[in-house]
Amino acid sequence: MILRALDLKSQIFLAITLIVAALVPVLNLYVPESSAFHVSSFAVALFGKYLTYALLAISVDLIWGFCGILSLGHGAFFALGGYAMGMHLMREIGDRGVYANPLLPDFMVFLNWKELPWFWHGFDMFWFACLMVVLVPGALAFVFGWFAFRSRVTGVYFSIITQAMTYALLLAFFRNDMGFGGNNGLTDFKDVLGYDLQSDTTRAGLFALSALALAGGFLICRLVVTSRLGKVLVSIRDAESRTRFLGYRVEGYKLFVFTLSAMLAGVAGALYVPQVGIINPGEFSPANSIEIVIWVAVGGRGLLVGAVVGAIIVNAAKTLLTGWVPEIWLFALGAIFIFVTLFLPKGVLGGLSAFVDLIGAKTKSKSEAKGPSSTAPQLAE
């Protein structure tokens, strides 16, 4: 029923994502390393990270591409989801830490904390941590969005205050007395649900889970944008004042989609942390949030699949360039954004789609110009 409501491109994307979720772990775990089809554990972890970035990019495209809300602070929701999962992983360490304290994480023992802060209670339970992964970013987005949209803050002003929000969180989480590890953040994770995070099986499972989360996030966003709600969001993007004049409560629609987007970003952050092995205040950096917007712009704003393509392209380029010549990466990123803005305003996927449509139109016009071939009728003698 749900798949029937999706167009062919969306069905193809979901099928590819599900195939990748099943195929890559199999090629990693069951195909010998000597085989050309073997996928290394390093590649599994790297591609798993890309999938979490793709989910994060979709969350930004949902609000920017379809509702016109340009957030430059979505890295904050990603980081909050990551911290929520990181807190659970720290509690899972128990007495296996450096200081062998069964209750306090190592950094708290080092800072002479005597008891566990109240906001750390409950994170020893996996279900509670998963709940916080979506509730904490969602609650922040709801409160922030309620005040911003109620005050009708739009455009560049909204972008600026979202960036101010993530920078304020960056400064707060850097403080040791916040109880989140200060500058070092949370790291040295051992396992999740009893599974060793360093084992190939766990890494493959996290990869598959990230792919499934991406498919689920895409499906949710697609159902939203193709519904009546999605049509209202597009009208808000194109003509907010007219939409409000027609009687729609614009603030409510924007608040809903902004909160949903933050929750998806939180899920992406939660899947990112166990695969990378660390979460620190650097994830709140405003530069990270700007980079997310660049992913969406490169892939194609307002396409959802384009956001996925952009996230993978840019991060693959980042991996390659930072390995070869790390000092030029920021210049390359700026050049990519300028090139896309000038020559591919609809992004890579949008430009490719327009090119295919152009070729198809030219082919059709040529065939119509030739017309059906026929021979002149012969006159009877």
3D structure, described in words:
This protein has helices at residues 8-29, 41-67, 74-93, 106-110, 126-150, 155-174, 200-225, 228-238, 240-245, 250-276, 286-299, 305-324, 329-343, 347-370; strands at residues 186-187, 191-192, 195-196, 278-279. A hairpin with a 2-residue loop joins strand 2 (191-192) and strand 3 (195-196). It is mainly α. The chain contains 14 helices and four strands. The strands form two sheets. Strands 1-4 form a two-stranded antiparallel ribbon. Strands 2-3 form a two-stranded antiparallel sheet. The longest helix has 27 residues, at 41-67. The protein has one domain (3-363). The chain is 69% helix and 2% strand.
Query: What's the helix-strand series?
Result: HHHHHHEEEHHHHEHHHH
Shape: globular
Biggest sheet statistics: 2 strands, antiparallel
Compute the number of strand runs.
4
Query: How many structural domains?
Result: 1
- Count, helices: 14
Proportion of strand residues: under 5%
Helix share bin = 55-70%
Contiguous runs where pLDDT drops below 50 for at least 5 residues = none
Head-to-tail CA distance between termini: 66 Å
